[in-house]
Specification:
This protein is mainly alpha-helical. It contains two helices and no strands. It has helices at about 5-30, 35-70. Helix 1 (about 5-30) packs antiparallel against helix 2 (about 35-70). The longest helix has about 35 residues, at about 35-70.
Length: about 70
């Protein structure tokens, strides 16, 4: 789709923010009892942390590729 590298980085970071928000909202929709919410929310939090780590690595990789192609 010929996105610019800056647009790819922005879209990737925005996508990673939604997993934690939607995961926590599903707990309310599903009616999970309070004492069991941690069992459902913990995997979402771990996945969200992984997303942030991966996206920051990916953004650095794209930025380095931009520097090489700009030179």
């Amino acid at each position: 789709m010929n996105f610019k590298p800056k647009e790819i980085i922005t879209a990737t970071f925005c996508g990673s923010k939604k997993s934690l928000v939607h995961g926590s909202l599903f707990l309310l929709v599903l009616g999970i009892p309070d004492e069991q919410k941690v069992l459902f929310l913990l995997p979402v939090m771990v996945y969200h942390s992984f997303q942030l780590f991966y996206v920051s690595w990916l953004a650095n990789k794209i930025a380095k590729r931009m520097e090489i192609t700009a030179s």
